[in-house]
Amino acid sequence: xxxxxxxxxxxxxxxxxxxxxxxxxxxxxxxxxxxxxxxxxxxxxxxxxxxxxxxxxxxxxxxxxxxxxxxxxxxxxxxxxxxxxxxxxxxxxxxxxxxxxxxxxxxxxxxxxxxxxxxxxxxxxxxxxxxxxxxxxxxxxxxxxxxxxxxxxxxxxxxxxxxxxxxxxxxxxxxxxxxxxxxxxxxxxxxxxxxxxxxxxxxxxxxxxxxxxxxxxxxxxxxxxxxxxxxxxxxxxxxxxxxxxxxxxxxxxxxxxxxxxxxxxxxxxxxxxxxxxxxxxxxxxxxxxxxxxxxxxxxxxxxxx
Length: 305
Prior knowledge:
The protein is an alpha+beta fold. It contains 10 helices and 8 strands. The longest helix has 28 residues, at 125-152.
């Protein structure tokens, strides 16, 4: 879309606003708008309550995808969603999403085969930063708690990691919802921040998978060898290094993270080349966690550039 610049008096240049945008935001003569120069790009933002976005979702015969579909609408940033379902089981899956991922959605209206979900609160930019910091800290805690519980043979503590993963789900869903609705302060970096939020959930998922295996009686004889414990601790060190690096960039720390990854991969390969054992599954999950952390380095470096 192109606009011609109009000169109104000496040194005063004016550009008209698109009529459709003005109508969507219900702007009137004399009303204030926010104008920001971000790296040579002029961002114009309507002040006040933004236009609401409503959507529809049919989870009939969706099975387990009913919960994921609800969470997807939440992450997409909808204010209101009308959900159609066939039976109580499908409604219960929608409610599971409200409890575990779509935390600001509430059912405000319900009939036999339909309910209306509505967001009752939204995070602002300051809250986004607080949620992100909490997510990073939680990830460090998950790894350290799981490793210590495994070494000590504490089944209850290993199973407790699942609760931390559920908290991670709520936090990362909220982060992605905010990014889809508001964007990152520097709009061109929104995609990179979204990738990081997505990967923070994935890494937590693999810690949960690992906690399920390590607390399973079928794996009670999984050997706690010196190598496997060291590998677990190195992966946790990598996670902690990335989380600390996120708000305190130092190029030496990036180099340290890369060197640690090489060390982890080499150690894992050495273990995998040995006689097959139940340690294989531990090593594979730890490698996946490590790769997830390293995959966040590139979007992170773009983010701080």
